Amino acid sequence: MLFLPSTIPAVLEITPKRHGDERGYFAEIFSQRDFEAHAGPTVFVQENESLSARVGTIRGLHFQTDPHAQGKLVRCTAGAIFDVAVDLRSDSPTYGQWAGVELSPAKGNLFWIPPGFAHGFCTLEPDTVVNYKVTSHYAPECDKGLLWNDPSVGIIWPSVADPDTLSAKDRVQPTLAELPVHFTMPNS
Ligand SMILES: Cc1cn([C@H]2C[C@H](O)[C@@H](COP(=O)(O)OP(=O)(O)O[C@H]3O[C@@H](C)C(=O)[C@@H](O)[C@H]3O)O2)c(=O)[nH]c1=O
């Protein structure tokens, strides 16, 4: 299993090893031992799945505030996505910066987004399924967002990204400057 830091060191692209044979392949998708060796102690308590029918569907950017901040281990099991994390830890050298990766079943990769980040994605194919484990239960009162195209963050979304697909709440999320909440880095 390969753990590769993104442009933001705490955000990791994980590529499981596929053991191929004449039947196909076998892969460990998640190993608590290997994961914690790179990401530190982590407990996942909920697993989510979404289906997005249209190419260019944008979901996000979302995060939960403390005490229900969530780390997310994201995987695309059908179709493909461009997955994005934005650093909301105000004492981080990469505060306000974003990291992105393409996830797909063909690549077999996952994206680890620790607590303290906003998360969103854009689908690159129709009928795309995204599956992700999270480290805290859904808490609607702590469910917050960041505007997907905040110019101060400057995410370079794929050209297929279609703002018509945004949910009502995601059309009107605050910008980074307007966010009422900030996180801090672990151990700070
Ligand atoms: C996130 C979530 C939503 N819901 C409900 C609330 C609502 O009725 C319905 C759809 O919710 P949303 O519109 O927020 O779904 P969606 O826009 O797909 O939200 C997700 O976006 C991605 C980018 C993330 O990072 C996730 O954490 C989550 O915020 O599902 C739950 O029951 N549990 C959950 O954990």
From TrEMBL:
Marked site positions, Participates in a stacking interaction with the thymidine ring of dTDP-4-oxo-6-deoxyglucose: Y138
EC number(s) given by UniProt: 5.1.3.13
The protein's enzyme class: isomerase
Catalytic residue positions: H62 (proton acceptor), Y132 (proton donor)
Taxonomic superkingdom: Bacteria
Transmembrane region(s): none
Catalytic activity of the protein: dTDP-4-dehydro-6-deoxy-alpha-D-glucose = dTDP-4-dehydro-beta-L-rhamnose
UniProtKB keywords: Isomerase
Pathway info: Carbohydrate biosynthesis; dTDP-L-rhamnose biosynthesis
GO terms for cellular component: cytosol
GO process terms (BP): dTDP-rhamnose biosynthetic process; polysaccharide biosynthetic process
Gene Ontology MF terms in the entry: dTDP-4-dehydrorhamnose 3,5-epimerase activity
Stated role: Catalyzes the epimerization of the C3' and C5'positions of dTDP-6-deoxy-D-xylo-4-hexulose, forming dTDP-6-deoxy-L-lyxo-4-hexulose.
Protein family (similarity comment): Belongs to the dTDP-4-dehydrorhamnose 3,5-epimerase family.
SUBUNIT field: Homodimer.
Record protein name field: dTDP-4-dehydrorhamnose 3,5-epimerase
Organism: Novosphingobium piscinae
